[in-house]
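@channel sequence for tomorrow's demo:
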Amino acid sequence: MVMGCLLTSACAGMDARPDVASAPPATVLDDKGRLQLKLADSARAAGNFGYAAKLYKTLVESQPGNAALQVSLGDALTGSQDFDRAAEAYRTAIAIDRFNTDARLGLGRVAMQLRQPDLAVVQFGAVVDQAPNDTRARVGLGVALDTLGRHDEARVQYQNALDINPRDRTAANNLALSLALSGRLNEAETLLLPLVDSPTSTARMRQNLALVLGLKGDVTRAAQLGRTDLEERDVKSNLSFYEAARHLAVEKPVAP
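structure tokens (generated this afternoon):
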């Protein structure tokens, strides 16, 4: 997880954060800029990511050395699914202020969208090294490791996140999925059941449980959960996938 001197705060030595880089945008903008920032933040909160990105881009051009503005631009571009430009904004923020954890988290998430889990491991790992109690980084690192097939290492990160915050439902959900990917279906079901039974359960949690049940051969319950969130054609498609996956697991050759 240690990615070298350039990626960890442990190697900071005599380096110091540049004042402009870490300053909140509102403190370095004029009245017009602060109004634009307020509009951009409101647009992003409302889901109007394209308009927000346009406003942030203008602000970035007026304050090119402010990492926080670059992160906001990256977040808006991520929301509009312009992942390549988002990655560029996050990289610029990191070049300005390598201590900026939000930039690294953003770049890690974008790397996953771009199917670059190795890069995501580097970015999430750097945040974990710098801020070990950041559960977002630990869960993100776990997802990247799972994507690379490194399930044991991934589960360590999810469990660490749960040790930090036992109520972290995202960590628990991803831990369950990681267990399922390793064939530990009973353990996965045990983790997912209380999440799904909660009033705040999400579609992802329910469909992860449907996956586990389907892989266990409990087609009836898997279908019932599937219909909670999906169209019938998607439910049938998932059931076919579960059946194929079960047969594949049965037929998988055992090494001598």
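heads up for whoever presents: The radius of gyration is 21 Å.
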